[in-house]
Amino acid sequence: MQSAEFPRVEARIEAMCQKGCRSVRRAIELLEQGDELSETHGLTPEELRVLLVELKQIMAVYGETCRID
Predict the structure, then answer these.
(1) CA–CA distance, 35 with 38 (Å, rounded to integer)
(2) Is the pTM of this model over 0.90?
(3) What's residue 68's pLDDT?
């Protein structure tokens, strides 16, 4: 499943990525711990799952470090 199938998720991913690499990595950590972020408020459990998977896929491109933020 891709975020394109979930318009609310796609918009939130774009907004989160605008905040930079470190911010997205921190968001992933918090979401994995079960925390809710202002950007995820109101999403269904399925939308949250898709959002987390998509964020991880995006960040996998950058490896373990954030060079520029």
Answers:
(1) 10
(2) no
(3) 61
